[in-house]
Thioredoxin domain-containing protein 9 (Tachuris rubrigastra), 227 residues
Amino acid sequence: KMAADTPVDILQKVLENEILQSTKVVEEHLDAEIQKLDQMDEDELERLKQRRLEALKKTQQQKQEWLSKGHGEYREIPSERDFFQEVKESKNVVCHFYRDTTFRCQIMDKHLTVLAKKHIETKFLKLNAEKSPFLCERLRIKVIPTLALIKDGKTQDYVVGFTDLGNTDDFTTETLEWRLGCADIINYSGNLMDPPFQSQKKYGTSFTKLDKKTIRGKIYDSDSDDD
């Protein structure tokens, strides 16, 4: 007399059956694809190949065009006049308004250098805030560092100090990348609903310090503690 199957045995059989079924589906799909390719005549295959080549060529051309416009590296621009020219040329621009004496600008530089190489679809620039008073006033830049995020020649968004980056000096490059992704200024492949903060609990706790420093007509460091 055969022993009755235990629940574990039954589950095992069900799983094996599931795996066999899904393998069968995959195999059938592959067979259909292979058959489709087999049935294609020379002309159709040639057309398919041409389409792939065209797409690759287009991607390469786009990449070359970006590189020729100064994408792919993080660059300092000497003046306000250069800013307008650079912004006119490129669809997506990130411009870091910095000051030599501000320690947090060096932190921002480090991350932007990495992102400029990774996201060549976007132009990454830096401009000395003290040499660009007109722009700082026009763009209402009060806190250093500030990133102006410019799309199609219009400033869409700002990253002011480190408030949006977990409020910590040791935020990761991934955190800044996520923030730029939220503004749709880079092609972000991660999940925007899942910010990669190093320390979630610090997030959003010290707005007052930054707010206090945005007094009209004067630019303040986000890392200076004087009132």
In short: The two ends are 89 Å apart (CA to CA). Helices lie at 7-39, 42-68, 80-89, 103-118, 133-138, 173-182, 207-213. The domain at 73-181 is CATH 3.40.30.10 (Glutaredoxin). Residues 7-39 form the longest helix (33 residues).
